Amino acid sequence: MKDISLLVQDHKKMYRAGKTMTHTFRIHQLQKLKDMLHRYEPRIYEALNKDLNKSSYEVLTTELGFLLNELNETIKYLKDWMTPRKVKTPSTHKGAKSIIYKQPYGVTLIISPWNYPLHLAIAPLIGAISAGNTAVIKPSELTPYTSDLLEEMIKETFEEKYITVLQGDKETSQQLLKEPFDYIFFTGSVPVGKIIMQEAGKQLIPVTLELGGKSPCIVDRDAKLDLAAKRIAWGKFTNAGQTCVAPDYLLVHESVKQTFIKKIKEEIEKLYTDNALQNDDFSSIVNENHFNRLLDYLEDGKVIYGGQSDKNTLKINPTIVDDITWQSNVMQDEIFGPILPVRTFGRLEDVVDEIEHSRNPLALYYFSENYQKQEWITRNISFGGGCINDTLMHLGNNHLPFGGIGSSGIGKYHGRASFDTFTHQKSVLKQTTAFDLAFRYPNSKMGRKILNKIYKK
């Protein structure tokens, strides 16, 4: 493996040469990335199946499909995004023009997680390329087949001094964080996110942190329960719950709790049969440590559905747990697995107190047919993003910037927001030399009167 410091220096030389600045270059690289995904598509399915037992359908909908859509959008609109934008100039600056230029940061570091190991490595890369940066990608060591394939694909497609995949464990990440990158994009857990921010702060490197948290799913008494049950079962148990925006726990109105639980059990069985352990389309837990961590959660409360597991395949059946308090272990951190705790509420205002136990979640989902209550939830609770009467689907709209708030993250991406994230908005004022306004200078006799008039004092 090449010395990390030398690798970063090669990237800096590439960037400083100015090659990445043109629209033509960036479009060509984005098209190469798109062609790469098509060319390696069969092996992508294979790698993700080996790492996480992902079905081809799930790979297409949650990994490849999203990336291809993102690439098409970026290629179509990149020229417009790159164009310097003229803005208004105040009368105190008469004769001047004000322009915002779109400047790349330079050499970027992308640290991606294991739960969507292709999607969450390539999606930020699209933003980095479109904005004119170079990129070093550090994929997760917990998904070795996909990480190996990612390294092979990138090496075969791009110059090493432009896009590089650098594999390794925690020590590799620590080495990378000591390098003078111009921007860091991290997706992962809150504890690691704090370390990333601390290390970046030592060099004042700007960061995007895509983290997580306990995303609530609220089912009100006027919700369409059949549809809510179906959409929640799908959103929670996709990728065996190993999704940063998966519904982490249910808040169900007390008057419909029993009816709703019955319906969601039915929907789980429709999606995965009554035993997902034997269903090839149901994902595995990523490794034994996470598998055991999730099983420990089943010691809390009362399992009212599921709970079975298979250590050989690292699978846990979709599980619903009742009689849970905020002191239960399962409610202390993001679950990141196929376990769904249930709590109830009586008044909508009570929901705020519930969510305050783990505030600023990455996502929130609310099921109700009442517009006023939908608006109340949206406006009165702090969360990164979410859906009304659905789950996960906001993630698939690249016109909606995606990201957290507070403890669930810093910064946004997807679509144009990805370009903006990897771009410095450079403000420039171009002043005329045809004349000079005397009132700006302290020795102007009329300066104060003119300025008072302009400022309407």
TrEMBL record:
GO terms for biological process: aldehyde metabolic process. Belongs to the aldehyde dehydrogenase family. The keyword Amino-acid biosynthesis does not apply. PANTHER family: ALDEHYDE DEHYDROGENASE (PTHR43570), ALDEHYDE DEHYDROGENASE TYPE III, ISOFORM Q (PTHR43570:SF16). The active site is at E210, C244. Keywords: NAD, Oxidoreductase. It comes from Halalkalibacillus sediminis. PROSITE patterns: ALDEHYDE_DEHYDR_CYS, ALDEHYDE_DEHYDR_GLU. This is Aldehyde dehydrogenase. CDD domains: ALDH_YwdH-P39616. Residues 3-428 form the Aldehyde dehydrogenase domain.
